[in-house]
Design a protein that fits this description.
Layout lengths: L4 E3 L9 E4 L24 H10 L3 E7 L1 H4 L5 H17 L4 E7 L22 H9 L8 E4 L2 H9 L4 E5 L15 E3 L2 H7 L1
Parallel strand pairs: 2-3, 2-5, 3-4, 5-6, 6-7
Antiparallel strand pairs: 1-4
Helix pairs in contact: 1-6
This protein binds magnesium ion and zinc ion.
The site of zinc ion has 5 residues, from loops.
């Protein structure tokens, strides 16, 4: 469905997946982060990812990036940061299988990104694309995010667990509708599984 993806591991065997939101979960959400020097990891995020990997979850990032559609940064900028990020995950022994992103916005984007798409969370399109690209045990898979839109996307895609975490690990907890669990941050979420 969405062509907006980077696949790092094309031979992923049948497996459960931990789908990870990016901003507010992996990195501090400074808004429209697209450069390494703005990319501040949430404390213990990589340790949390490694724990999930050790517990048998493949790791896939699913992230709304309307900053592309809004011309705050380009697809090339996002690609550069994403490949750097994949390197950091690999070094942390938590290799990413893929990153799916949505560059669209229904009102605030410029062409060709101005559209009501199926990939922008709370739509489940990125998760459904991943399940087409890979052999994923969706009913055994989990999504970890900091917004109710993440939780809704996970529910729509048929994921058993949707863990809502505090944005940046510190900000007040958002709307818990459609979540199944709550945790302080990605590391704490990894301990629940
Ligand atoms: Mg987020
Ligand atoms: Zn989209």
């Amino acid at each position: 469905m969405t062509p907006y993806k980077f696949l790092f591991d094309r031979t992923l065997p049948y497996r459960k997946v931990a789908f990870l939101d990016r901003d507010g979960v992996i990195n501090v959400d400074h808004a429209y982060v697209y450069q390494r020097n703005e990319f501040d990891f949430v404390p213990q995020a990589l340790e949390g990812a490694r724990t999930l990997y050790q517990k048998g979850y493949a790791l896939i990032i699913v992230t709304n990036q309307s900053g592309i559609g809004r011309s705050k940064y380009s697809e090339a900028d996002f690609a550069k940061l994403s490949f750097w990020l994949a390197g950091r995950f690999k070094e942390a022994q938590a290799p990413l299988s893929a990153i799916y992103f949505c560059p669209h916005h229904p009102e605030k984007a410029f062409a060709p990104y101005l559209m009501e798409c199926q990939c922008r969370k709370p739509q489940p399109g990125m998760l459904l694309s991943a399940s087409k690209d890979f052999d994923i045990a969706m009913s055994e898979s989990v999504l970890i995010g900091d917004k109710s839109s993440d939780m809704t996307a996970g529910k729509e895609a048929g994921l058993a667990r949707r863990i809502l975490v505090h944005t940046d690990g510190t900000r007040p907890l958002g709307n818990t509708t459609d979540s199944t669990d709550i945790a302080q941050n990605l590391y704490e979420a990894s301990q629940l599984l």
